[in-house]
Design goal:
This protein is mainly β. It is built from 6 helices and 24 strands.
Length: 452
């Protein structure tokens, strides 16, 4: 939530269940929260279906009702009460969730991806993609029906809207689906049909899309960039990261810039082939005239210290235009969240001059904290990349092209004497003027802090 000054406040809502996914339906202004419950379910009413062939979403009196079961709660925009609950089959876990507009249909659907979890299966062999139609009746009560369902051979790990279609990943396959209208006599119903697909390596845990381009995160083979060709109805591989990584989340932050996090709590910035960076693109999309896929290079890296499981372009707190002159218009920002409950913000800096100044400031602050023995682990060591066995690397593991905002804000909590030492060192480096150096640094770091 945000108050009148646009500062972020956190309010907790007890669900009594383990939340898995959350998304927001704009048209109805409601939140959909997928949860997993371990309690015994007594009498569950089956969800009405608009298709005579679609199976019900819940089963009363199931002999496996005591096992883990999943549901989707539909809540008001303020998340203060549950208006409707949709239950799923026994052993069926919700693994993806997103709102989507399909074709020319003005109805906003809730797309749900699931996986059937069985103890004797190393990986899920079956899942479903469901389109739920959510509306309000005459009494302003929420109604939910199953508009269409598709059985898929595996777990649906990710779903995103894409060009009035639905894009998703099922195991090692990226699929693009659309909604087809069918008539049975005078009754109209829908079917989910595949437009095209791309088969990759191991498991695509996440997909993100912008324009014609799709960024995928593989559980072992890092990041790949695909392009959708509407004329040929195909998905083509355009570029990929040649280094291995157990990817946890990915995001497209600019035309040629991509963010990725891995299972070792590291975060990377990737860019396309360096040989093409100097070329001026005539359009706003990733271009590649060669049939051979390019390489994505890791142009920035640091240790986040959190298991980041979601990256999304956006912002919170103050509007960027209200924060400071260094945050220019159209500078894209990304919000990240972690399995530990942390929330962070990544902001692009406008140029090398500002980056150099802030990099010197963070190094100077870190050196002063280390000199005063105020940190158990030096900041530069903490931000080094970590390997699978939990030990930090050397050489190639150094943090690069990232500014540690948490370390910068430690400057505000220093004593006046320590701040003065940092300011005098910055003057020696020639990055701030001697007159009013301390006030200038304090003001700039305060503006950074206002971004969240």
């Amino acid at each position: 939530m945000q108050d009148a000054s646009k500062r972020v406040h956190i309010r907790k809502v007890s669900l009594g269940e383990s939340p898995l996914w959350i998304t927001y339906l704009t048209h109805l202004r409601i939140c959909a929260v997928a949860c997993e419950t371990h309690t015994r379910s007594q009498d569950i009413v089956s969800l009405p279906s608009s298709s005579s062939t679609a199976s019900p979403i819940s089963y009363p009196g199931s002999p496996e009702a005591h096992k883990k079961k999943c549901c989707v709660h539909l809540m008001s925009g303020q998340c203060d009460k549950i208006a409707k609950t949709v239950h799923f089959q026994p052993n069926e876990q919700v693994s993806a969730l997103c709102p989507v507009l399909l074709g020319d249909d003005p109805q906003e659907y809730l797309a749900v991806g699931t996986a059937f979890i069985h103890e004797d299966e190393p990986e899920p062999l079956k899942g479903r993609v469901l389109l739920l139609r959510i509306s309000k009746d005459e009494d302003d009560q929420l109604c939910c029906t199953e508009a269409a369902v598709l059985q898929v051979p595996g777990a649906v790990y990710s779903l995103v809207p894409f060009k009035s279609m639905l894009l998703g990943s099922v195991n090692n396959r990226v699929s693009l689906w659309t909604k087809t209208d069918l008539l049975e006599g005078t009754r109209k119903h829908y079917r989910i049909t595949e437009v095209c697909h791309y088969v990759g390596t191991v498991i695509f845990l996440q997909v993100q899309a912008t324009g014609d381009y799709i960024l995928t995160g593989d559980v072992m083979h890092s990041v790949s960039l695909l392009r959708y060709d509407a004329q040929e109805s195909t998905l083509k591989l355009m570029a990929s990261d040649a280094q291995a990584a157990w990817t946890t989340t990915v995001e497209i932050v600019a035309r040629d810039s991509f963010l990725m996090a891995d299972d070792c709590c590291n975060m990377y910035m990737l860019g396309r082939d360096e040989s093409r960076l100097s070329q001026k693109a005539s359009s706003t999309s990733f271009t590649n005239d060669s049939s051979k896929p390019q390489r994505l290079h890791r142009v920035g890296q640091f240790h986040a210290g959190e298991y980041v499981n979601r990256l999304k372009c956006g912002q919170f707190g103050l509007e960027l235009a209200d924060a400071h002159h260094f945050v220019k218009e159209n500078r894209r920002t990304a919000v990240w969240t972690s399995a530990g409950g942390a929330i962070g913000l990544i902001v692009a800096l406008p140029g090398s001059q500002q980056f150099t100044r802030l990099s010197l400031l963070q190094d100077t602050v870190g050196q002063e904290l280390a000199r005063q023995k105020m940190e158990l682990v030096p900041a530069e060591d903490w931000r080094k990349l970590w390997t699978v066995d939990g030990t930090s690397k050397s050489n190639e593991g150094e943090a690069q092209r990232f500014i540690d905002g948490d370390l910068l804000e430690r400057f505000l909590s220093m004593t006046p004497e320590q701040q003065d030492i940092v300011a005098r060192r910055m003057v020696v480096h020639g990055v701030v003027s001697e007159e009013g150096a301390l006030d200038q640094l304090v003001r700039e770091v305060q503006d950074f802090a206002q971004l969240h």
